[in-house]
Structure formats: structure tokens, C-alpha cells
Amino acid sequence: MVSSTGAAPSARRTRLRAWLLEGLSDMAKQYPGPHAEAPVEHKGQRWWRVMCLTGLDYFSTLGYQPGIAALAAGLLSPIATIVLVLVTLLGALPVYRRVAKESPHGEGSIAMLERLLSFWQGKLFVLALLGFAATDFMITITLSAADATAHLVENPHLHSTLAGKQVLITLLLVALLGGVFLKGFSEAIGLAVYLVGLYLALNVVVVVDGIWKVIQSPQLVTDWSNALTAEHGNPIVMIGVALVVFPKLALGLSGFETGVAVMPHIEGDPEDTEDRPTGRIRGARKLLTTAAVIMSVFLITTSFITTVLIPKADFQNGGPANGRALAYLAHQNLGGTFGSIYDLSTIAILWFAGASAMAGMLNLLPRYLPRYGMAPHWARAVRPMVIVLTLIGFLVTWLFDANVDKQGGAYATGVLVLISSAAVAVTIAAHKAGQRKATIGFAAIAAVFLYTTAINVAERPDGVKIGACFIAGIILVSLLSRVKRSFELRVTDVVLDQTAERFIRDYTHRPMRLIANEPDNRSLAEYQEKKREIREHHDVPSEVDVVFVEVTVRDPSEFESELTVRGEVLHDRYRVLALESSSVPNALAALLLTIRDRTGQLPHIYFEWTEGGPFNHLLRFFLFGQGEVAPVTREVLREAEPDRARRPRVHVG
Predict the structure, then answer these.
(1) Of 388, 405, 454, 553, which one's alpha carbon is 20 to 30 angstroms from that of 597?
(2) Which residues, other chains included, contact 592 with Cβ-Cβ below 8 Å and sequence gap of 6+?
């Protein structure tokens, strides 16, 4: 009876663990994301339908962008927005059209830069970019939820009931988003098409009505123009000030990275291959261009009508137009019923923007961190990651008091860093391709975005602070995970050439004995001396046949890698298995297990003790894949094969 009672909690824990760790990321199938591998066979959707998936992130910024622009630029908002549109069409758009060509499977600019850098500096650089990407996606979730809350709270029918409860409502929306992903989020492009179509149609009504109001009252434009001239003087000064305040409007640039991320969903040509998906690239470029043009038209028109028609005081924190300028006009000019419908549409698309960002995170981090050994095993499953990300969303919401304006700096920083990295990546790609004019053009665009990023960081350091927190958190967790997982057997595959295969087949009826050798000049004297030392230290009879094994470390910063094994006969007498891997002990352990499985015999490997302190050797192993090889090889084998009777034998003398 006691045993049965005691077993019940254990069974519940087992079921809970199985539920939490069920499968890999479902989103990897449904939202391939910036860095997921594209499936070999994928029918895809028309590019304009996939554009609506991008629009969940991109077009939803209309919910708060006009209000943020009015706060940042004041009367200059329309002019500063024109600068933003020019940067979008002449800068960001060409960059991401090139990114689409360079990474047609949705890898994005981070993967482009990863290919340019190696070893630990490359890994740390990617981790830093992941920190800013996490800032972008996480603030998308919390800022979108906060703005959805603003639309709820400021609705005339709900204001008296919900006023003062912004933080609680935002937390509930973030929790609801996490709950949906815990249950299982299924991508539906069809729903995105209807949602984005309805939202844009409602915005067209608001914009057309606003322009008609301005046409009916031309004095509004005159008053705005006079006030603008009185405040800033001549047009040259206005343009100069607009260039200075433009970085504060950078939220309007969001969505390009998402546009590349959804590329695997785009239908290609029948003759497309995964190596040359020409149709998919063409569709992605149409998607990026069309989305940018639509958004540019909306940005200019909405910034103009909101600046002219809404009193400046209403944009301030706590004002009825703060974070919801277009909804304010919808209620004021088109009535409460239309305004409430507009609110519901805005809330829905903002919430789905958070869902898109969550999906991006669930695809982005598993693309890199597990491969680097810098994430626990459970990070490959959806539900534990959703819980972690939801808790981070709670923390960010609480720290920023569910305020849209306060989160704008952090969001803009994440967006600008990613776009800047993309601009740098395509500049380098153009330079390597020998395209001089393209290199100069992309370098100029990169300079603009780097300047914009620097200005944004200087004026709103909260963005880089939260980005630094994400970077520090990712690096700390990554390094701890790397240390914890250092003794895993992390070879993804063992590839033997014909000579190595023949060496191993010779030992199907007797144990294979290997001598671990750190190659120097690979001279005859080197192998003779090594063989003599091993026979003397381990009392190996002279008639016993031995094979030398040597490991060359290519990139010790890699965690998971393929092991290539090449067989050689040196000096007409010594058989050598030459290995290439990211870690000597892991490579040797993988080879020993492969020999055991192919021959049915337990292989033996012989080492010499290495001089030096154990801590230094452990640090060398962690950073450079070497160090005191013998005990680490034995530990890797112990973790990989718990049955001592089936574990290859390790001898040290």
C-alpha cells in the first residue's frame, strides 16, 4: 500500500516530464524560422499569402508607430517618417533582397556572418547577435501585448473598468500566449491572410477618412505648417532635425528579418532544387518589396493625419492617443462601433505578432545553442523553452511597467542591430563576389544603419542595457551548459575511408589495440619510439599487432561535428588511423565505440600520462579540445556506455 502511494507521485512526475519534453520543436515544422533547415519536399504557399505571415510582425507596428513617431519627432513626424521610408526602400530593402539570395532557406544574416567567422570569436559573435535577436523578439512579445492592453484600456466602453490594470492585463496576455504554445501552436497562413487583410482594410478606412477630414479643413495643414516653421525655421533645418530624430522611429523597420525567416514557406518553381531555389528567391523578393511599399505608404499617411488631427497633449503618457493614435481617430471620427471593431482587429494582430515572435525564438535558439553545446538537452523541446520565455516576458513587462514608450528603445535597438549585421554581411558577400559597385553601395547602407544604431543607443541606452542583459544571460547559460555537457559523446557521424574500413575489418576475430599518438613530424623514429614506450609501460607483448591513432583538431569551438577517419600505411610498416574532429577525447571515444560495434570485439587504447596540472589540462580541453586526453576519453566512454562489460578498454601508463 505504501509502495503504491509512493509510486503515484513518481508516476505523475514521469508523465509531467514526458509531457514537457515531448518531441522537438513543433514550430520547426510549422515556422521554419530564421535558422531552421528547409524540408527537402515542400509545396509552399503563394508569396502574397506568406507576406501576410510576415505582416503579423511588420504591419502590426501601425498599432503604435504613429504615436511613437509623434512623441519622438513632434510636428516633424511626417518629415522624419519620410526619412524612415527612404531608408527602408533604399537601404533595408536592397539589403534583405540580397540576404534572401544568400540564404534562401531562411537562415538570415546571422548565419551569413557565422560562415565568415570561425573558432571562439565566431561563436561569441553569434551569441552576441542572438542576444540582440532575443531582445527584438522578446520585446516584440511584451511591447505588442502592452499595446494590445492600451487598446483595451482606452476603449471608451472599457476604460472605466480596466483603467489602472495595464500591467495585470499585459501579464495575462503574455501568459495566454505561452499557454497556447504549451498546448501546441499550429501555423495557419490562411488565418494570417484574413487577419492582415482585415487590419489593413480598416486602416485604409481610417487613413482615407483622415485625409478627407484634412481636405475639408485645409486650415489644419496651414496651422501645422506655420507651427513647424515657427519651431524649426527653414526646410534645411527641418530635414537636419528629422535626420537626427530618425533613429527614434526605427520601429518602423521591423519585419525584414521575419520576411527572410518565412522564406521556406514560399512556393517555388517546379524546377527549383534545394541548392538553387530560384522561384523561392524571386517570391521572397516580391514579398519583401511589396510589404515595404505597403508599409511605406501607411507610415507616411498615418504620420501625417495623426500629427495634423490629434492634439499634441493626447500623445503624452496617459493620453487617449498614447500608443493607439489610429484607434483614437477611428473612435473619434468613425464612431464607437467602428472604433471597437478596429480595436479588436488591432488587439488580434498585435497578439499574433507576439505569437510570430515566440515562434521565431523557438526556432532561432535551437538552431545554434545545441550545436554549440551551449544549451541543456531540454532546450530542444518546445514546452520548457516556452515556460522560460514566458517567465522572461513577465519580467520584462514588470520592469517596463507594461509601457509601450519605455520599451520602444529596446525594441529599436534589437531591430537596428539585426539590420546593421545584415548590411555588414551583404557588404562582405558582395566584396567576396568581386562586385565593386554593390560593395560600395552596401557599405554606405551599412554605415547609415551603424550610425542609426549608435545614435539610438546613445539616446536610449535602455535598449542596449536590456540587450546586454540578454547577451550576458545567453553567454553565461551557454558556457555553463558547455562545461556540463563537455563529456558527452558529441560526434554526429563517423565516416571511414576504404583503408580505415579495411583496417577495422581485420579485427573481427581479435581485439584491436590502438596507440594514441600526438603527431609531430610523423617520422619513422617517432613511431618506433612511441611503440617501444607503450610496450614497455603497458607490458604489451611484441607479437601483438597495434594500430596508431592520431587526431587533428580543426575547430575546437564546435561542439557537435562529424568524425572523418582516414587509414594510412606509413614507412611501409605502421598502420595509422588519422582522425579529424573538434575534440581529441570525443573523437577517440567515438572511434572506439564504432570499432566495437563493427567488429563485435572490445578495442583497447593505450595512452601515456601528460605532464602538467589537471586544471590547466581541463581548461585546454574545454577551449581547445585537447589537454589530458586519457581520463577524459574514459569519462566520455563511461557516459556513452553505462555497461562496463561493453565499454572499450582504456589503458594509461
Answers:
(1) 553
(2) 514, 603, 605, 633, 637, 648
